[in-house]
What we know:
This protein is an alpha/beta fold and 304 residues long. Helix content is 30%, strand content 27%. The chain has one domain: 3-Layer(aba) Sandwich (UDP-N-acetylmuramoyl-L-alanine:D-glutamate ligase), CATH 3.40.1190. The longest helix is centred in the C-terminal third of the chain and has 15 residues.
Amino acid sequence: MTERRFDDDSTDARLCVAGLVYFEIFLPDEGLDVTPGEETFVERIDVGLGGALNPATVAAALGIETTVAHPSGDGLTDDAVAAARDKLGIAALTWPAGDDPAISLIRSADKERSFVSCADRQALRNCPELSVFDWLHIPGLEEAHQLAAQIERARSTGVTVSVAGSWAPARLDALNEVTQPIWDVLLLNGREARRATESCPSMAARARQLTDVANDVVVTDGPGAVHAAVGGCEYSFQVPPVENFVDATGAGDSFGAGYIAARLKNIEPEKALKFAISVARLVVTQRGGLVDKPSRFNVLREQL
């Protein structure tokens, strides 16, 4: 059964983030020496939620009316996701799936992350219509592939659609075959942009080339630079280091959510990109990309 927490005629439900919500277990960064046949104790194991809930909670913390759409079963992690949504006041649109449809083990070292994940991606195909929103965001190319029919119908009714990369090599390779925009906004990191484009002299040129796939393209090239081709204009920014950096998990999601929030507030592209950088710089000072303390975003929310 589909769960909805807004009226069909409501004008408040503006942004929908559709995809999988992951239950995340953060393995210790250093000193994990496991002996076969023995139990190893560490000082702390962090757990959290991610996937579609990351950009949804960021957007909500920035004052955007946000709904997260995701498959859900009856497992323990499904209960944890529902409890977190209720606690954070995030509206939900759900449909049946197998129990515990998305789980990740995350290891961070030297500001890089490694994942061991399981995901019931095919459950996304049963997603209901998503045409009642102003903006639809899909946080991964693989998820966008599974939701292609829903995306096409939403765009046909005037919904703005954005898609993030989330490192899906086969889907990145397939972007080379696209000859006309299938989405409104494409958000990639530098590694994804390199995989998705032919040899280009610069990252700005890669962003420009990818406008064959989406009308607007934004590339975050590591932690230090952002390049974009938006509305026929090109933008490039250098980003200073974050002194109190904790974890890069969710950095791309938070940047995307910040950009979407600014654009939904009709902020011009250059200022929207700079705002998105500020949002991402704040999120990397915490563990994971989910915002469980919206008050940390009070200053940024007021800027909107």
